[in-house]
Amino acid sequence: MTNTLCTDLTTEVFTSGGDNKEAALHLQKTDYLASVCTNEVTLRRVVSKEMGYEIFNGLRNIGLIYSDAKGEAICEIFPLQKSPCSNHIGISTLAITKTGKIRLTKQSEKSAIYPRALAPSGSGSANWSDLRNTGGNFTRFLQKAMERELIEELGLKHLRKPKIQTKVIGFARILNRGGKPEFFGVSFLDVPEEQGKVSNKERVFTEGFEEIIIPAAKELWDTLSADRSQIGAESKQEICQAIDDFIATNQYRLSPSLYLNLRFFKEWIESIGKERG
Hints:
It contains five helices and 13 strands. By secondary structure, the chain is an alpha+beta fold.
């Protein structure tokens, strides 16, 4: 096991404040082993055989657990700044090609997270090294981490400078992994599909690729990648329907990260051209 140096998010991304001022986000170093010992034991429980009492309950890493007046269990999720977990930042992105395909990875049975499931095009942890040359820009840091994972997992490392445009489109806290923060993106990939292949290093964890066909002609791809404000209502409907059909057909094969990434992508498509309050 390689104990990679990861990045821990120690403040909430969204707050309930009413002023729309930019707030500072605080990051600190953590590592893969710390996450294994905190976030990844959330669903573990240890009970003493001799004494019969609970020694450890990983659910308490998520938040405060207590009973209400009706005796029902309540869990108040810890804000990130009070969480006892490592909370290394997770990142996932969907790669869209100019031929109208979303390329997904198939996890092998040896994958530590969600074995044998379909996963996003690039998915993993934001490393401390991803902070280099970002100028303190958190969005650029996330984009850089997403593109690094995508290049590794789609087998594009042999290309000198693959053309990728990435947008951050969603955020969630993954409760079954201790409430760890995860950001989701969409990456527009201007690379011939035949140039991507599973590398020897990734072959241990990735069996291959699958694709979602979406009605994205080159003109639509250019519009989305340039973040222009309008696409036709018919194109929106066709793309969203393709996503819904894929989820319905493969619901038992999707990793939670892929499911969330697809839902965020659909919401992003639907939001294009709408005024934001």
